């Protein structure tokens, strides 16, 4: 009703109207602000479970990944690899898990050789544990993690492609090193690569694990890893091995599908021989592979079943490096 | 309350209790039966939209596929191919779309040379149309369709693998022949294969279509195809071409993702030269490729937009035929 205002003379009514309108506008703005504050925050930390389309806009958290590289006794290789990996497209940040207990990190040298394309964080550890790299680092800002061993070089082309594949299979470990387990008539499992017999499901070979030492996976799995039975941590600590097998068990249990998607690398190199430290990596220990078979069987006990599933999907990049790499003679 | 029964002497109470219990049990059974009848029937004819695990038990409708092969003027090739395809694992039935108008089908000869591993149905057509093969045939009992041109031979190994891939990507066209469209500065699209310039999204090439003349897809898309604008049928009939491009548009619109998944064939052969008919297929017409570019632009008009999306995923079979086909020199 305008009765109150309408009775007033024109000028006074004009001022009153103006004040009224101003109050209304301010109230509306306050209400809008309050509503915005009340909007639920989109929590996207949970693991997705469907094939996702790669986004074209650059959104930091969704369109980039964090490299986690654990290092022990091979600082020369670490620095060589940091120079390579710091310039990989879509890299957001590097987290170096420093397993050289009591030794200073190369942070000073790193800073003196700046500027760098991305930030590098050195996480100093108190105990030299294989599973240190599987902590749920608060420094992680991206959905995707790229985990690399400190002696492995994968080309930028391979990584850019594998990252785009991970974006389409975000609930899987998307990486470059496939392995498998096999059943034996005794019911005891054995671990191996393609030199081991095929599991016998149709033609060709199968893999049931993708090793995390050269792979992309969702950060949610680092959160999940913190919730595993104590026996899993004890196993990894006892063997200083098998953290990657444990992760594959975890992912397979979570998805009910094969844990990994294998992307065939064009250019992957092991730089072990190039180190001055003389240290050549855990996998040279005599018992390394036997340990891994042992771990498979122990994990089946701990998880009360074999969750790993087989896959024979091998993904390559269409038309790269050879633009006719799919040509057939038809 | 048990007051009514409790007052009665033991024997009478026993009989009453027994009768009461029996009535209760019968009522419960009736209720359970009614509930079961009321359970919603699971309609699985709709297109799924998530990655599906291959089933290990043999369930006819889910674990097998129907081959649909259209044929015109190449009955010698048809029969040669039928001998090959009739024995492909997981094949449920063959539907031959008989475009030889007025001519008798080879059904008699087929029957005289029985028994055969699977039933073959000859669908006699009244008009020789390219899109005859895209009818929603009532003979279809499986979720999966394998569509093959009548001059294309794909090995059983390739088909078995591609079928297992389709089972993991049931909403896509999973096949052996990738093609693409490209944008030009004028806004006019052009159609081609890998000899055409790359679309320019990062390294390597991309494909935006998988041709249906050698591919698996979900039968739901045949249903969908019946619901398209009249202009689409007119276009296909006018050109006697482009039914496969139209199907890729349909699938891309439905999923919002790349329509196809390319599986690199190990052994795919074009038997055109082997025919006695002298007929060498539509793609030899001078205007064939120009028509296909024309179709891409017409379909963009009809659908008011370009729904095709690019992919660079190339899938091969891990460890087959060469058990070390993924070995790297690391």
TrEMBL record, chains A, B:
What does the sequence similarity comment in the record state about its family? Belongs to the glycosyltransferase 47 family.
- What name appears for this protein in its UniProt entry? Exostosin-like 2
Q: What is its main location?
A: endoplasmic reticulum
> Its Gene Ontology molecular function terms?
alpha-1,4-N-acetylgalactosaminyltransferase activity; glucuronyl-galactosyl-proteoglycan 4-alpha-N-acetylglucosaminyltransferase activity; metal ion binding
EC number per UniProt? 2.4.1.223
For the keyword Transferase, the answer is yes
* Catalyzed reactions per annotation: 3-O-(beta-D-GlcA-(1->3)-beta-D-Gal-(1->3)-beta-D-Gal-(1->4)-beta-D-Xyl)-L-seryl-[protein] + UDP-N-acetyl-alpha-D-glucosamine = 3-O-(alpha-D-GlcNAc-(1->4)-beta-D-GlcA-(1->3)-beta-D-Gal-(1->3)-beta-D-Gal-(1->4)-beta-D-Xyl)-L-seryl-[protein] + UDP + H(+)
| Origin organism lineage | Eukaryota, Metazoa, Chordata, Craniata, Vertebrata
What class does this enzyme belong to in the EC scheme? transferase
Function, as annotated: Glycosyltransferase required for the biosynthesis of heparan-sulfate and responsible for the alternating addition of beta-1-4-linked glucuronic acid (GlcA) and alpha-1-4-linked N-acetylglucosamine (GlcNAc) units to nascent heparan sulfate chains.
Question: Where does the UniProt annotation locate this protein?
Answer: Endoplasmic reticulum membrane
Q: Cofactor(s) for this protein?
A: Mn(2+)
Q: Which PANTHER family match?
A: EXOSTOSIN-LIKE 2, SYNTHASE CPS1, PUTATIVE (AFU_ORTHOLOGUE AFUA_7G02500)-RELATED
A single Gene Ontology CC annotation of this entry is: endoplasmic reticulum membrane
Q: Which gene encodes it?
A: Extl2
Which species? Answer: Cisticola juncidis
One Pfam family matching this protein: Glyco_transf_64
Membrane-traversing stretches? 20-42
UniProt keywords, alphabetically: Disulfide bond, Glycoprotein, Glycosyltransferase, Manganese, Membrane, Metal-binding, Signal-anchor, Transferase, Transmembrane, Transmembrane helix
Q: Which InterPro entries match?
A: Glycosyltrans_GT2/GT47, GT64_dom, Nucleotide-diphossugar_trans
Instruction: Please list the residue ranges annotated as the Glycosyl transferase domain.
Output: 65-320
Task: Tell me what topology the record assigns in the membrane.
Answer: Single-pass type II membrane protein
Q: Does the keyword Transcription regulation apply?
A: no
GO BP: any one term: N-acetylglucosamine metabolic process
């Amino acid at each position: 009703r305008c009765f109150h205002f309408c009775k007033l003379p024109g000028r006074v009514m004009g001022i009153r109207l103006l004040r009224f309108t101003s109050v209304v506008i301010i109230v509306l703005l306050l209400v809008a602000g309050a509503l915005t504050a009340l909007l639920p925050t989109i929590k996207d930390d949970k693991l997705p479970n469907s094939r996702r389309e790669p986004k074209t806009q650059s959104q930091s958290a969704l369109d980039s990944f964090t490299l986690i590289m654990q290092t022990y006794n091979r600082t020369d290789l670490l620095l060589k690899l940091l120079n390579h990996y710091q310039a990989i497209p879509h890299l957001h940040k590097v987290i170096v898990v420093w397993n050289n207990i009591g030794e200073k990190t190369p942070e000073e040298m790193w800073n003196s050789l700046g500027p760098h394309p991305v930030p590098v964080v050195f996480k100093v550890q108190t105990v030299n544990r294989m599973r240190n790299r599987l902590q749920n680092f608060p420094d992680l800002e991206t959905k995707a993690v790229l985990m690399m061993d400190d002696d492995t070089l994968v080309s930028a082309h391979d990584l850019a492609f594998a990252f785009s594949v991970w974006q389409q299979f975000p609930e899987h470990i998307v990486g470059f090193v496939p392995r498998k387990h096999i059943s034996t008539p005794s019911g005891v499992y054995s671990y191996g690569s393609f030199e081991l017999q095929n599991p016998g499901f149709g033609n060709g070979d199968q893999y049931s694990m993708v090793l995390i030492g050269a792979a992309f996976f969702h950060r949610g799995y680092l959160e999940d890893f913190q919730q595993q039975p104590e026996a899993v941590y004890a196993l990894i600590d006892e063997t200083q091995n098998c953290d990657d097998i444990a992760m594959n068990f975890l992912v397979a249990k979570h998805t009910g599908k094969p844990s990994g998607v294998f992307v065939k690398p064009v250019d992957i190199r092991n730089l072990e021989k190039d180190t001055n430290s003389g240290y050549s990596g855990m996998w040279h220990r005599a018992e390394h592979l036997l340990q891994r078979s042992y771990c498979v069987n122990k994990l089946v006990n701990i998880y009360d079943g074999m969750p790993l599933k087989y896959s024979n999907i091998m993904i390559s990049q269409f038309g790269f490096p050879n633009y006719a790499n799919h040509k057939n003679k038809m």
